[in-house]
Amino acid sequence: MALESVSASQSDVRTCYPVQSFMSLLLTGATGLVGRLLLEHSRDRSVLAVARRPVPMGSNVQVIPGDLANPAFSLHQHLNEVTEIIHSAAAVRFDLPLAEARAINTEATGRLLDFARRAPKLRKFTHVSTVYVMGNDEGQLPEAPFRAHSYPNSYEQSKAEAETLALAAAADIPVQIVRLSSLAGNASTGVVTQFNHVHQLLKLFPRRIFPVAPGHPDIPVDLIAEDWTVPSLWHLHQHAFSSGSIAHLSAGPQAAIRLADMMALCSEIYDCPAPELVPLAEFDRFLKSRLGGLTGRLMEALGLFLPHLGRDQSFLNAETLRRIPAPPPRVESFLPAIVRYCHVGEQVLAAR
Question: What are the CA-CA distances from residue 29 to residues 87, 120, 190, 285, 327 (Å)?
């Protein structure tokens, strides 16, 4: 998920046709990975897409330039058009100050929910969230409301706070929450359309910047394929909508991969030793001892996510699997292709 609600002038964004009165799906995050793929599934729908850049689209899509994080931005003129909303826009940087992350992920969600309350024809609102609302807690994340004791970064805290607003709004409007795990790439091709923290870690693997990594060999690593995730998300919104529900598009206990097996797979493909797995407290001491300079800043940034490898977290999805057409592909079935794709990219960069 990426923030696609940053302000833009009318001249910055191509609009397909003039504003007209019709029933529409309002989509935020239209130029992010999830939003772009959702547009492909909505070709038979009239779509109002909030975006800051031109969107690859057909004649069914109208772009609304604007900034959901700006309190002055208004969708009021579209109140009578909107029948459905998918809110997938978010700022996914882990190092944003909490106030900035809240403005984008939490407060903007609140304003969109207020708009939904006033939309007289609204039938459903799907709020796209993340399984990492689990924060620093360990154990199993249920397909239910959850309040973590603490969070490792501003992204996870602000998304958890946005969930609280969405759940409260379910008393007034039809809202469901769909939590996504980490998108790894396309299971069919191995292509990575949009790089995130997972791919940065994979690309750094052969550089041995981290001789140690937090975690226990048996900790599950939950990754999902975009060509399974987005069709499943669309199905949950279009065909299996359930107000007040929380769904997990995650690998889950059955399809996740053991951390030790992922490390072994990367070690084989990259032909280099894997980092030693150590307890989280020991990894924290290692990070603090290396802070300073470029490498230290890199470690500090990655340290906002790496501790997740050291936490025993499982994202339950049994109820969600009953609502979607197909289970997630096992991580071990598509991760080798993703790792090879990242490896080839690193080799190309090294050759330049």
Answer: 7, 23, 24, 38, 25
